[in-house]
Amino acid sequence: MENEKNPSSDAADGRLFFPSKDLALLWRIPFHNETEPDKVEFALRERIKELNCLYGVSQLAERHLYSLDELLHELVNFLPHAWQYPEVACARILFKGKTYTSDRFRVTDWRQSAQIYMYHEPVGEVAIFYLEECPPSDEGPFLKEERALLDAVAEQIGTTATRILAEIELQEANRQLTVERQALQEANTALRVLLSRIEQEKEEIYHDIKTNVEKILMPILRALALQLAPAQVKYVEMLQSNLKEITSPFISKLSLAYRSMTPTEIAICNMIRNGMRTKEIADMRGVSEATINRHREKIRRKLKITNQDVNLATLLQSSMWEQNKSADNGHLNGYPNSTSFH
Question: Are 173 and 114 in contact (CB under 8 A)?
Answer without folding.
Answer: no
